[in-house]
Amino acid sequence: MTPLSYCTNVHPAEDLLGVLGQLDSYALPVRERLGADRLGLGLWLAADVASALAADPAERKRLRAELDARGLEVVTLNAFPYGGFHDPVVKQKVYRPRWTDRARAEYTLNCATVLSGLLPDDAAFGSISTLPLGWREPWTPEDDTAAQRLLDEVTAGLRAQDRTIRLAVEPEPGCILDTVHDAVTWLAGRVDPAHVGLCLDTCHLAVSFADPAGAVAEITAAGLDVVKVQMSVALHVPDPRDPAAREALAAFDEPRYLHQTRESSGGDVRKADDLGEAFADLPGEGPWRVHFHVPLHATPAAPLSSTTGVLSQALAALPPEPAHLEVETYTWTVLPEAHRQDLIGGIAAELSFAAGLVAPK
Question: Could you give all domains of the chain from N- to C-terminal order, each with its CATH number?
Answer without folding.
Answer: 5-232+306-358 (3.20.20.150)
